[in-house]
Amino acid sequence: MPVPAVPPLWSSLLALAVVGLWASAAAADPRLDEVVYSPYVEAHTLELEARGAHQNGGSLRGSTTTVTEAEYGLNDRLSLALVVTHEKEGSEASRLTSVGVEAIAYLGRIPGIGVDAGLYLEYGAGQHGEANKGEAKLLLAKTDGRFQGLLNLIAERPFNAPRGEGYAAYGYAASATWRTVGRLRLGVEAFGDLGDDHGILARRQGAYLGPQVKWEGRPKGSPVSIVVDAGWLAAVGPSRQEGRTQTRLSVELERHF
Fold first, then answer.
1. In angstroms, what CA-CA distances link 161 with 132, 133, 166, 189, 202?
2. pTM, whole model, 2 decimals?
3. Which stretches of the chain drop beneath a pLDDT of 70?
4. Which of 149, 154, 146 is nearest to 188 (CA)?
5. How far apart are CA 175 and CA 111, in angstroms?
6. Whole-number Å distance between alpha carbons of 239 and 234
7. Fewest CB within a 10 Å sphere: which of 53, 55, 160, 228?
8. Pairing label, strands 115-126, 95-110
9. Pairwise CA distance, residues 161 & 140, whole Å
10. SS3 letters for the chain?
11. How many Å apart are CA 206 and CA 235, to the nearest integer?
12. Max CA separation in the chain (angstroms)
């Protein structure tokens, strides 16, 4: 089966992400709570998702983040969701760290280049001493035959952090997948940092990069679709100080009303 060529635009976008991999000596945020979002919204669809990421090896070995979401598409332009995050650091017990709301708005297609764009906004109320935070993402998607490329550009800022720590951090999440057999997609994904208010790409940043497997199906006679997304990521650059690898798994149930 021939593999479609990656569109030139996405060659550039993925090259930019790779530059981000190599672009600070400071250790990177492992971004265990992140996932690669698409800009698309499914009207009148309820989505229940549970996802987890685990840090293997390094100074943060054993750290785990679990996120549960309940999302509903109000129409084909806007969805709203409730997001709950639990975190476990090393050998410590898991604890609730954030309860938030998120919105995804589909903005439309960028003329001339065939890229779909969306906007993600989230407000998280910190729990058990964690700071409240706001997060914004520009969501970009390009589909060409069996190929789909997704790129999220991320900005995150705490609202009530201790003095000297209330600055914004910037990062990215990206994936490139191909539909192979049936509804099975194979590809690669990457999560990394681009810097903060003290400097964008000013120092070499770390990242996690590795293979991704995604499958979607519906049991016969059931109105509910199941989406399973799994990945194994290797640390690159300064991130190797935090952990050698990350394992990720997401399970999502969808129902259209």
1. 8, 9, 5, 31, 23
2. 0.86
3. 1-30, 201-204
4. 149
5. 22
6. 9
7. 160
8. antiparallel
9. 30
10. CCCCCCCHHHHHHHHHHHHHHHCCCCCCCCCCCCCCCCCCCCCCEEEEEEEEEEEECCCCCCCEEEEEEEEEECCCCEEEEEEEEEEECCCCCCEEEEEEEEEEEEEEEECCCCEEEEEEEEEEEECCCCCCEEEEEEEEEEEECCEEEEEEEEEEEECCCCCCCCCCEEEEEEEEEEECCCCEEEEEEEEEEEEECCEECCCCCCEEEEEEEEEEECCCCCCEEEEEEEEEEEEEHHHHHCCCEEEEEEEEEEEEC
11. 7
12. 57
Residue 72 burial by Cβ neighbours in a 10 Å radius (0-12, 13-18, 19+)? middle
CA–CA separation, 176 vs 145, rounded Å? 13
Domain 8-256 has CATH 2.40.160.40: yes
- CA 132 from centre of chain: 19
**Which residues lie across from 59 on neighbouring strands?**
none
CA–CA separation, 149 vs 200, rounded Å? 24
Q: What CA–CA distance (Å, rounded) separates 168 from 156?
A: 5
The chain-wide mean pLDDT, for the chain, equals 87
Contact 172, 156 (CB under 8 A): no
Question: What are the backbone angles phi and psi of residue 21, rounded to the nearest 5°?
Answer: -60, -35
